[in-house]
Amino acid sequence: MTAGYTYLWEVRVKPDRREEFQRLYGPHGPWVALFRQAPGYIETLLLRDRADPDRFITIDRWKSADAHRSFRSVFSREYAELDARCEHLTMRETSLGEFE
Questions:
Q1: What is the rounded distance in angstroms from the CA atom of residue 96 to the CA atom of residue 78?
Q2: Which residues pair with 10 in a beta bridge?
């Protein structure tokens, strides 16, 4: 059995875009809707820092790294379009790593 695959991002959101960011990246937003189209997707968690309301952590869980790679290949155009559509919401995005 393949170990699960999880990746984390720290995102600094523009203060005037917090609500929009939470809508787009939350459990009913277009990112999750896109991920759900792919086999192997498990869930996305969106966490807001209690001490810093402009700082968020996203946690995306997949059944395997291969499932995530396949998603990125098959949905590369849709991913790029959505990423470009959301670019104006953030000041910085930092990968915190990939985990099993």
A1: 23
A2: 57, 94
SS3 at position 51: coil
Alpha carbon separation from 17 to 13, 25, 40, 62, 90 (Å, rounded) = 7, 12, 31, 28, 8
What is the per-residue pLDDT across 16-49, written as a single tens digit (0 to 9) for each? 999 999 999 999 999 999 999 999 999 999 999 9
From the centroid of its chain, how far is CA 63? Answer: 15
Nearest to 41 by CA among 21, 69, 22: 69
| CATH at 82 | 3.30.70.100
Q: Which domain holds residue 61?
A: 5-99
